[in-house]
């Protein structure tokens, strides 16, 4: 069973990835040991592909640092489910191809030990057997995700132009 | 029905007629800003740059400011890689170590103008809204894609209208205003929104810059002020003529998601307690809290008027023993002005330590890093846990006046009790009157 990492409101980018590393760590390999360092020191060693991250409102607020989104994607977080997201983090996740689900009800429904499952095609996330629908993404964003992130998307566009 | 500032400016930049909130448009920004993160940005597209080249040579503005001068071999290599990129691809706007903090440099060099759309790989890019630009932060990957394509997508935001009235009392500053607003709205109170400030004619450009700088601390996508006589005069002072830009502003009957009023005359000095910016209390509530380090400066409050205000309080006095006062001018221009006005001399005489112009202690990467259990009172914009390098330290945010007064006592102090008077120390206050 995939593990669920649950945190509170206003989790900022300094908690997700300390600013002091921001110029020395930019690749996934360098980022991973420090991911969530000042929030949950057990995360970096314990996280496995397919795990979920649940959080309250305003997840990812603070700096424009992309390492949290890049790192969460690289460790294989299936999806982040939060009550709401700060906008720069939201864009960063789109750009990395990390799935963000905005679903306050799912977060509230979660009880310690509940299993979380994702059905991306149906657009639902289930928490402890209860299913919640989440809104589908706008087309402009889906196109970026389908291309595998913003850079592959931009490259394809440039090649078409040429 | 009228249009908001955001609707109008994004329509202009996307070549569309009329936009409504929620629509997604493709835009071509006037400028793209990046700083010490430039090396990491261009590393993502090294091969693409060889293949396609940058979309435009005049779009990308690169400022070295975050860890300057280099604190380690690694930082030095980082700066070197950035200089190499700038040279190789003919980046027209490059500012090396010591010019200043990127946001102040953008403003001073006339690279952020009314009616411009500016994207920056730094969250405080929202500061240029003070001059009537639509400016917002993006991440490194998006900056990389922009270098190649010159365009990106933006969602047209809803807007919040804040009406200001009255004027600030002595000892109360624009920092107290924006902290009070954030305290009321909350850290996500303006998430995805553009915040328009109306009725700001009484605020100087420096004061508007402080307010707009912190828009992101309530989640705002952008913050904006109307272009008025003060904006025009400021731009003229830096050599930008009135025919060099085309201001945009909201219609009187635009639609807002929320409206708030702030009477400036009712505000007092406030402090944001650890570890969130919206944890705002009156200075009285934390008065007497001992502080180990005071920081005066950063992109939020590092302008000449901020140093002059602090100097007016500290002139002829000494900071408390056991407290250190770090001075961090936002740019070389600011530093020169604050030297010319005598402010820097007064602050040094009082026991201050002058740091190189740049981000210094603000992001905890070098200079002024805190130790466990230490407490810092800072004029910067973030008090997150670990922000100044140590997760066991505490950061309080306040105005330059509050920081100056607190440095004297080594404890958080009410600036109103420490204002100079023309006839000696005591009541009265010239502090704010001096602000440009
Ligand atoms: S001074 Fe601080 S907030 Fe401003 S750009 Fe530098 S690190 Fe960011």
Description:
The complex is a heterodimer of chains A (162) and B (436). In chain A, helix 4 links the parallel strand 2 and strand 3 (79-82). Chain A contains eight helices and seven strands; from the N terminus they run βαααβαβαβαβββαα. The longest helix of chain A has 12 residues, at 150-161. The radius of gyration of chain A is 16 Å and the shape is globular. Helices cover 35% and strands 16% of the residues of chain A. The model of chain A has no long low-confidence stretch (mean pLDDT 93). Chain A is an alpha/beta fold. Chain A has helices spanning 13-16, 28-31, 43-46, 67-74, 87-96, 104-109, 139-146, 150-161; strands at 4-6, 52-55, 79-82, 100-102, 116-119, 124-127, 130-133. Chain A has one domain: Aconitase, domain 4 (Alpha-Beta Barrel), CATH 3.20.19. Chain B has 436 residues and is of the alpha/beta class. Chain B has two domains: 23-263, Aconitase, domain 3, CATH 3.30.499; 270-434, 2-Layer Sandwich (Aconitase, domain 3). Helix content of chain B is 30%, strand content 18%. Chain B is built from 15 helices and 20 strands. A five-stranded parallel beta sheet of chain B has the order 4-3-2-5-6, sandwiched between helices. In chain B, strand 9 (194-198), helix 8 and strand 10 (222-225) form a beta-alpha-beta unit. Chains A and B meet through helix 5 and helix 8 of A and helix 4 and helix 6 of B. Iron/sulfur cluster (SF4) is lined by residues 66, 101-103, 122, 124, 298-299, 359, 362-363, 380-381 of chain B.
